[in-house]
Amino acid sequence: MMTPQTEDQVVEAISDASGPLRVRGCGTRGVVSAGADLSTRALSGITLYEPGALTLVVRAGTPLAEVETALADEGQRLAFEPTDHRRLLGTSGTPTIGGVVAANVSGPRRISAGACRDHLLGVRFVDGAGRVVKNGGRVMKNVTGYDLVKLMAGSFGTLGVLTEVSLKVLPKPERVATLSTQRGTVEDAVEALSQGLGSPFDVTGAAAWPEAGGWRMALRVEGFADSVAYRAGRLSDGLGLAPIDDPWADLRDVVALADCAAVVRVSVRPGHAAQVLAAVDAEVVQLDWGGGLIWLGGPDGAALLRAAQAACARLGGHASGVKGDFGEVPRRQPEAPPIAAITQGLRAKFDPRGILNPGAMG
Hints:
Layout: H1 7-16, E1 21-24, E2 36-39, E3 46-50, E4 55-59, H2 64-72, E5 76-77, H3 86-89, H4 97-102, H5 110-113, E6 120-127, E7 132-136, H6 148-152, E8 160-168, E9 170-171, E10 175-183, H7 186-198, E11 203-211, E12 214-223, H8 225-239, E13 242-243, H9 248-252, E14 262-268, H10 273-279, E15 284-288, E16 293-298, H11 301-315, E17 317-323, H12 337-350
Parallel strand pairs: 1-2
Antiparallel strand pairs: 3-4, 4-8, 5-9, 6-7, 6-8, 10-12, 10-13, 11-12, 14-16, 14-17, 15-16
């Protein structure tokens, strides 16, 4: 495994590569790709943190836990609530901030705070031709040039190897409350989640899962203590909810599906969640983002993914294989021809030799 210590060594490793490179941090997210391993784990350390400006600049290989600890010491956090995939995927190692950005990993709070890419201020990376590229800045109002910042988030290392990222951070809330009740059907559960999200009470989590012949749904509110108490009370009165213990770490990390042989992730309009579930044969299900994110688990990865992609093609959505053997079924929802042409054009521009994580987006 190549573990460059500096950005210049990343340039050298890519420039000298004679074949594909499997770009990774510490390998916790199970990126599917062939080639020689190129790890950014040695590119570690916080290079700038200005709590008053809500700004953090950090090298890509820095452990996520180190970042979160530094922020917690100042009463701040990464508002997009990044998922830790280790239990779900059965991987080891330490999640890195570069891996979070490269996969655009965003947890339950995405519905209110936005995704990882929405908090990304700037990036430095080395593209497939060995060129160092810098885009963005350290403040949100920097919008000059091409928006490579958002392009890199979710590119899974196929356009370049991240060496440094700049992020906006936010204060931690004074209080968190989770409210829940049971509904008889998934349609009823999604409707209740939608009512919570459509309310003026600033819901920051909206999830549901099967329980005892029905569907358990949960809503989260955060903020100053008096505000949370008021908003939680109004939601309880309106939707018949009661407080429960905080389930969000397990929901964020999709722990309920950890023992499933195959896991499929579906992104769809919340109103279509019931139709997706009716079209697949899943043993374990979890809904997040008000029903817009569906996690499916079962024994047959190929059958599960094929059915999910067919439903998404009909309804408008995206299904991808996260864990398991999917046979000949593409791990990601096939793109429409115009989008596929743009994707191929971008890869040809930034990785003309096609050596960075080939197959990771396929």
